[in-house]
Amino acid sequence: VQLVESGGGLVQPGGSLRLSCAASGFTFSSYYMNWFRQAPGKEREFVAGINRGGGSTYYADSMLGRFTISRDNAKNTLYLQMNSLKPEDTAVYYCAASYTGGGRNIVYWGQGTQVTVSS
User: In 3D, which of 21, 17, 20, 38 has the Cα closest to residue 86?
Assistant: First the structure.
């Protein structure tokens, strides 16, 4: 099983990034998928989740309206479009597969990709 994130980097405040997570080794379409993040010195927190078919999405309040989660089951890939980025969005972003929605019952984790928002 592999979850490989990409697309992180350095971006100025107000900018945008699109993260991707390529999945392999399991039936991607059978799992809810999620994004989490962990800032230095803080606990890992839920960012967004999406159901198996992609028709329902869930967001942490602070990301609502700025971040969009999506998936392409034909490509076994999860995405996170991040707009209006703020310095407090700086963190390592992880994708994760779960049995249920809302960021619970995580079964697989990626290795993370660094996002730094700074001028």
Answer: 17
